[in-house]
Design brief:
It comes from bioreactor metagenome. The chain contains 14 helices and 19 strands. A six-stranded mixed β-sheet has the order 6-7-8-12-10-9. Strands 16-15-17-18-19 form a five-stranded mixed β-sheet, sandwiched between helices. Strands 1-2 form a two-stranded antiparallel sheet.
Length: about 400
């Protein structure tokens, strides 16, 4: 099945850091992108599969990303045996290093008989599990079931697709187990919010696009200002604001042309300030409740490192809407806002609670812009769809739909 790969050759391989050549320009600054942990895991898994099934040891592995960008990632072989191969990639986070920058992400591909419990099984004959340094889900409410490894949906698909491509070339039909590991993942996870989410023992394998775009705070805020200046220069007085890609999808679902929407990231307060400064007259924020609920407490930077308070906000408004002390206790144990919504829905107070939250969001938006901009917000949930609108949102939705038709 495979050609011999000598130990001497393996030991002589040069360790290279995975470098993404993709760059983005923000406020006339060129910033180099990095690659996600999902891309690293997919490349390492593909490399291991190629050695195992083809006897082919490559210094670089090509993978496709959901963003449509093809990556050429340096890989190294750690172990090689007749029944398994272990490869790794050194993660490169680009010009905005995160806690996983420079860590080694391993993938071991092994031939197995039968099925291993608590594995992801989304492609025939291929099984995926997290090993050392990969977190385990311990609470309900996350995308993975309790007891499963914290490997998110998009990275899972990338990993499965990468290994399947090798199986297709070789017509291999047997079972393979793919194990992802980050030896120092447990220590790295202490610098993340994983434990608060109910993920214990390691980091998560993440990424929605495969590409890690720089998140320099100043660069992002400067870009927001530049976009708003450009929009006003074109004579446009209405602005749709979305925190990120989910918000863009939601805006399109509302019937807006979100092509000119401004991505505020976590900097909603700065975005509102720029709107006032440059003469924007109407502004509608569209996004996921997980971020926008923070506005109900006047938290205008929605990054978790600045403040969270999602559970506290939901709990207060649940009580104002008929909830009890027991409701508060249950909300405080929820992993995320989706789980909180499930709880409120089961108590038949979700609609009233969200109405109360939206009224408070409106108050804080109006206060931030000193009533100089007609503001509103529309809140979405991944499970429930559109779940809330501030008092002025309907007027703004009508305005933007009319503008798009003109």
């Amino acid at each position: 099945m495979k050609m011999a790969v000598t130990l001497q050759r393996l030991l002589s391989r040069v360790l290279s850091k995975a470098v993404c050549k993709m760059e983005i320009i923000k406020n006339q600054k060129t910033l180099r992108c990095g690659i996600t942990s999902g891309s690293c895991a997919a490349a390492a898994a593909k490399a291991a599969a190629e050695v195992l099934l083809l006897g082919k040891a490559c210094e670089f592995i090509n993978i496709d990303t959901p963003k449509g960008v093809k990556l050429k990632i340096p890989v190294s072989i750690a172990e090689n045996d007749e029944s398994y191969v272990r490869c790794f990639v050194v993660k490169d986070s680009g010009d905005d290093p995160d806690v996983t920058n420079g860590c080694k992400i391993y993938a071991e591909v092994s031939i197995i008989v039968g099925r291993i419990e608590n594995t992801f099984f989304e492609v025939p004959n291929l099984f995926l599990i997290g090993g050392e340094g990969i977190g385990t889900v311990t609470k309900i409410g996350l995308e993975q079931k309790v007891g499963m490894s914290a490997i998110n949906k998009v990275p899972r698909k990338m990993i499965f697709d990468a290994v399947k491509s090798v199986c297709d070339i070789t017509d291999y039909m047997g079972n393979l187990l793919i194990k992802i590991e980050v030896p120092n993942g447990k220590e790295l996870a202490e610098r993340t919010f994983n434990s608060q989410l109910g993920i214990e023992g390691g980091i998560s394998i993440l990424g929605t696009s495969g590409i890690l775009e720089p998140m320099s705070e100043k660069a992002i805020v400067d870009t927001i200002e530049t976009q708003i200046k450009q929009i006003r220069a074109e004579g446009i007085k209405g602005l749709i604001v979305v925190p990120g890609n989910y918000g863009m999808t939601y805006a399109n679902a509302l019937g807006f042309d979100a092509g000119n929407a401004v991505k505020s990231s976590n900097y909603i307060g700065e975005t509102l300030d720029f709107a006032v400064s440059y003469g924007i007259e109407k502004l509608l924020i569209v996004g996921n409740i997980g971020k926008l609920i923070k506005l109900a407490a006047g938290i205008m930077n929605t990054h978790s490192k600045t403040a969270d308070a999602r559970a506290e906000i939901m709990a207060v408004h649940a009580v104002l809407s008929g909830g009890t002390a027991e409701t508060v206790a249950k909300i405080m144990k929820c992993v995320n806002t989706e789980e909180m919504l499930d709880l409120l829905d089961s108590l038949n107070i979700m609609e009233k609670t969200l109405e109360s939250i939206c009224i408070k969001i409106q108050e804080h938006l109006d206060y931030r812009v000193h009533n100089k901009v007609l503001c509103g917000a529309v809140l979405f949930s991944e499970k429930y769809g559109m779940i809330g609108k501030t008092p002025r949102a309907d007027e703004l939705c009508g305005y933007f739909r009319k503008v798009d038709k003109e």
